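FAQ: What does a multi-protein file look like?

Like this. Sequence, then tokens, then the next protein.
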Amino acid sequence: MRRVLHSDRPLSLRHTLSPHRRGRSDPTHRTLPDGSIWRTSLFASGAVTYRLRQPSRTEVVADVWGDGAEEFVDTLPGLVGMLDDATGFAPEHRILVEAARRLTHLHLGRTGQVFEALVPAVLEQKVHGVAAFASWRRLVTRFGAPAPGPAPSGMAVSPPPDVWRRVPSWEFHRANVDPKRARTIVEAARVADKLTPIVGMTHDDAYRRLRLVPGIGEWTAAEVCQRALGDADALSVGDYHLAAVIGWSLVGAPMTDDEMVAYLEPLRPHRYRAVRLLEVSGMAVRPKFGPRTPITDHRFH
């Protein structure tokens, strides 16, 4: 199945979809040298592989394979950022003003796939990204299904909640996932059908629903809402570096989480949009934080 979308404003597939990529070897996401982006997903009607290309700044071509193709096509405008609404975003800081002026093609996409965004977010809790990405790759490759269609070698579809719920504890252990994160994934899988409705909820209600799952806090809820809902206000409070980066970038000194929340309050409901503009523009200041803490390997204890 092929669909061609024409937008009335510039788009950037690379920037819009980059938050969904979990490391260079993510089995659900590949970017090829020709610029095409391949992804997999699992819908109620079945799995899909899709390839997205951007012939021009306002055109997106999607080729889709798999039983869930028709269902996926309905989500395509939201995925590529065509439904993103920046109304009311009026930053005053010169850096954010300049970033918004330069990056008119940066939009926030939404997958509508809550559980698919939740599992990798849980894996990234309080660990180095490289370790979380390795865990995600191992578990999806081990328990997922082969990508339908002519997908690049090694691509796979993330397992459904019922499979995640039955992943043995020793398999999480082999994937370097500690018992707490493993329990959170299993608990979320048990109530996955109750999490899906957050795509139609307000920001606050979606957060409350997600945080009913033991092990999901404010940071994880924000990471899920950013990707699944395209929530422009989902600020990742509790991130290891974010408050310091915001502080150094906008006021020239590090901030605590509370200080960051207070400083960005005037930008509601677009706090995450401001963060993405800083990230993509290259204007974020990222001071050296000293020696990196060692990567914890849970497989040997």
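And here is the next protein:
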Amino acid sequence: MNASKLKTLILSICATSFAISLISFPKESMDASIRGLNMWWEIVFPSLLPFFIISEMLIGFGVVKFIGVLLEPLMRPLFRVPGIGGFVWAMGMASGFPAGAKLTARLRQERQITRAEGERLVSFTNSSNPLFIFGAVSVGFFYNPNLGIMLALAHYLGNFMVGLTMRFYGNDRKQKKETKNHFSIKHAFSVLHQTRIKDERPIGKLLGDAVISSIQTLLMIGGFIILFSVINKLLFHLHITSFLAKAINYFFHLFGLPSLLSIPFISGLFEITLGSQLTSQVQGVSLLQQAVIVSFILAFSGFSVQAQVASILAQTDIQFKPFFFARILHGFYSAIIMAVLWKPVYEHFYENGETIHSIPVFIQGNAKWWEVAIHWLQNIGPLLTISALIIYILIYARRNLQN
């Protein structure tokens, strides 16, 4: 049996097993689906949609190229990517997964970056946004806003180190002329103007394209969130998670991590929210050990996010393998940074090493705006989602009638 037939057999068995599992555990599958839908409905869609639409508009107006010219002297020596990578990096950190992949794919489709540059760029521009790290994980799961500072520090420093490491990936023999350009606002503005002139779409058409493209991407993201939420739940009930956890235990012992964290770790490899939540609920382990596991989970980003990125990159010639390798690298970097900085930073500045199980009164104000943002999204998010979907349907229907 050749490799192609073997792949067909494996995929068929997996799909059949998944269908049988859905029938065998209908209630658990429904609960997992609702959980994934609520996450997309309340948080993911309303928080990502504005960033996606604004990004599309900025690309169309030439602002991204303007930023790219200005950041070229910084991004090219550090990461071997064009200056426009700085915009993708910033938007990726601000909006979270998978904004970096979407913007990278968009730039590749417009041939503003090469294939190798795209593979380097996507490897370090996908990260968790601060709202999720501080609001959901540190405050929502651990009730400890100070932990969010450590998680964010480990996460973003790890991403920076991934970018420095991945600069050695690929071999670009053709160097663009922009690499020799110096910082010049005049030249950057000229590039911005030329880019806007070349895009002949009126503002209304540009805005409509941005809305349609953004919502289509978010619908795909929602499907993956629901799918992997169900898969994660089924794996647990089929005892596959516990089986994999036994194998992980041997790896954990090498690093002095307790076996109690193995099941949350496996769950986090599939879906970061559930993995982080389960890790925070484990009793009898130190906060440092929990923080190391959560740092790895956030950096690895879960197969759910990776599937979203793979789907986005499939629209281009950018390969997924470098991104997957970068996620493993990011996981180890973040976990190591957390372990190294824990004593000199967290134990020195926060509570002298005492584990915080509740939010003290004198630091509640620091976390207040994170809590407000989360509650606002949960209350207003569904309304924004419905409104955006109605607008999408109207624009889509109008264009079909015109055609």
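Q: Is there any per-entry metadata?
A: Some entries carry free-text notes. For the entry above: The two ends are 49 Å apart (CA to CA).
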